[in-house]
Prior knowledge:
By secondary structure, the chain is an alpha/beta fold. The protein folds into 2 domains: 10-177, Rossmann fold (3-Layer(aba) Sandwich), CATH 3.40.50; 182-387, Up-down Bundle (Dehydroquinate synthase-like, alpha domain), CATH 1.20.1090.10. It is 48% helix and 11% strand. The protein has 13 helices and 8 strands. The chain has helices spanning 21-26, 44-53, 67-79, 91-105, 182-201, 207-229, 234-253, 258-269, 274-294, 301-314, 324-334, 350-358, 372-384; strands at 10-13, 32-36, 55-60, 84-89, 130-134, 146-151, 156-161, 169-172. Strand 2, helix 2 and strand 3 form a beta-alpha-beta unit. The longest helix is centred in the middle third of the chain and has 23 residues, at 207-229. The radius of gyration is 20 Å and the shape is globular. The model has no long low-confidence stretch (mean pLDDT 95). The structure holds fe (ii) ion.
Amino acid sequence: xxxxxxxxxxxxxxxxxxxxxxxxxxxxxxxxxxxxxxxxxxxxxxxxxxxxxxxxxxxxxxxxxxxxxxxxxxxxxxxxxxxxxxxxxxxxxxxxxxxxxxxxxxxxxxxxxxxxxxxxxxxxxxxxxxxxxxxxxxxxxxxxxxxxxxxxxxxxxxxxxxxxxxxxxxxxxxxxxxxxxxxxxxxxxxxxxxxxxxxxxxxxxxxxxxxxxxxxxxxxxxxxxxxxxxxxxxxxxxxxxxxxxxxxxxxxxxxxxxxxxxxxxxxxxxxxxxxxxxxxxxxxxxxxxxxxxxxxxxxxxxxxxxxxxxxxxxxxxxxxxxxxxxxxxxxxxxxxxxxxxxxxxxxxxxxxxxxxxxxxxxxxxxxxxxxxxxxxxxxxxxxxxxxx
Length: 388
Ligand SMILES: [Fe+2]
């Protein structure tokens, strides 16, 4: 029952809540450093309201953020005397905002603080406060304590992580996701699903994250197919925004598993969106996890978790884990998720990917210890498609 719970001091959720961003930002010193994606005009009214409060600098993130770019952003925010970072965008933008806020107060060598490739030391000083305003429903980055950054030199994605990096305020306005392109809705929505499933079956699940995952799996089982077929449905959009938020809180306070363990190295080497990688891997990882668990003499408790996950996702009280992999495969196919091979992941990269995945923090929470052979089997099945 032991757990450590972390969340933003305030979560504002609901249609129209993003209009409060400028007033909330004004309470954090009024010197705003604004981080957005490539096309800030998409949220023109919100950005204009921030300028009315006082913007001392802004930073546009294109693609997934690199260590060098966010370190530069941190230097800029510090040089301009920013009092708060306001990040408005998808997961990459929110991660960039959190890293910029950390580096603004922690100059020097970024390698001091990075996991895996760096020294992983704690931050020396508190980051600038962050207000996170997600515009997609998927990553949950508005409520997590890490920022995923790419290192081109190491061909890896690694985390800058600190409990002090939790945003101070998360403003989750489902209206900001209206009109998102279908492909982004699909792969970010499947990322949200994986972020409810992996924490629910992982080794560090606790009663707080269980509560979120149980509710989230039920809601996303209905909402994700609905938003894929009816992207204009505001109720489905709001459900997805909540599921993304719940998944973010769950992963930040429990952990993930082999889907995310493999997604880091794959995303570091191949230009494939994070959610698309997770979507491609969720059925094969679930299949291999279940086979390893079922091969054990005494049926572990985790198997009943998979039964429950399937009942909640499908809404069918008589379903169990045996239907889960086909259910996931069908949803991923309906979402139009491309294979990893179409993103350039060929079998001659597998050994290197598996070796890199071993040291990821997510892999340690997977419900079973997957040896290299198990991870190779995951990649083989993904490449083989549903025929496995
Ligand atoms: Fe994810």
